[in-house]
Amino acid sequence: MPWPLRWVVVALSLGFSAAIALWAFEFGKDIAGLDRTSKGELLQLRVEVAQLRSERDKAQAIANTADSLLKAGSVAQERLAQQVRQNEAENLALKADLGFFQRLLPAAAAQGLTVRALQAEPKAPGRTRYQLLVMQNGNVAADFTGRYEIILSGTLEGRAWSFSPLGGTKPLSLRQYARVEGVIEHPEQAVVKTVQVRVTDPKGQLVATQTVKS
Question: Is residue 66 assigned to a domain?
Answer without folding.
Answer: no
